[in-house]
Amino acid sequence: QKEVEQNSGPLSVPEGAIASLNCTYSDRGSQSFFWYRQYSGKSPELIMSIYSNGDKEDGRFTAQLNKASQYVSLLIRDSQPSDSATYLCAVTPYNQGGKLIFGQGTELSVKP
Amino acid sequence: GAGVSQTPSNKVTEKGKYVELRCDPISGHTALYWYRQSLGQGPEFLIYFQGTGAADDSGLPNDRFFAVRPEGSVSTLKIQRTERGDSAVYLCASSLGGELFFGEGSRLTVL
Known about the structure:
The complex is a heterodimer. By secondary structure, chain A is an all-beta fold. Chain A is built from no helices and 11 strands. Chain A has strands at 4-5, 11-14, 19-25, 32-38, 45-50, 54-58, 61-66, 71-76, 85-92, 101-102, 106-111. In chain A, the strands form 2 sheets. In chain A, strands 2, 4, 5, 9, 10 and 11 form a 6-stranded mixed β-sheet that branches. In chain A, strands 1-3-8-7-6 form a 5-stranded antiparallel β-sheet, with no helix packed on it. Chain A is globular, with a radius of gyration of 13 Å. In chain A, 34% of the residues are buried. By secondary structure, chain B is an all-beta fold. Chain B has strands at 5-7, 10-13, 19-24, 31-37, 44-50, 53-56, 65-68, 75-79, 88-95, 101-102, 106-110. In chain B, the strands form 2 sheets. In chain B, strands 2, 4, 5, 6, 9, 10 and 11 form a 7-stranded mixed β-sheet that branches. Chain B has a 4-stranded antiparallel β-sheet with strand order 1-3-8-7, with no helix packed on it. In chain B, strand 4 and strand 5 (44-50) form a beta hairpin.
């Protein structure tokens, strides 16, 4: 079992719709969770971090964490073509300091 | 500079050669990470440093890979006897303990 799993996609949504990206992780003791966005040919950039159960909202982005289900998701409201990118889920495993493990990423395509 | 700087941006080498990839982190960032990313995959953890020491090198695939950070700033990833399977984008990131800031990567192609 991979430490961090995501559907590779591609996920295609129409402009203005809600895009829902999902991630599961294997280490139940994981403490920190991140979503990075990576445009084609570019390096990853952080868009959201979440540390406790529940929802965290930042503009059009909402991260949701459920530690009991070992599940973290990212919702993008009012999706724009400029949101088309690969979204990477990343997790800090328990007791491994600053080590960050990434999933394989989900490719999102927002169609005008 | 303002961001993480990686050199070279592109490196083409022949199988069996030695390669060095350099990372210059954001000034003051104590943590430095190396990842490897193949096409269509997420970044694969290789090693991270806290200051001068390797805090976790569990991701280095074998003893052909080695990384140093002698003064706690610039880091060099060294690959000996390169193989075609080493071809990938090598990403460096630095951090003060929270968000990772990535460089643009060094694309390594082994022919």
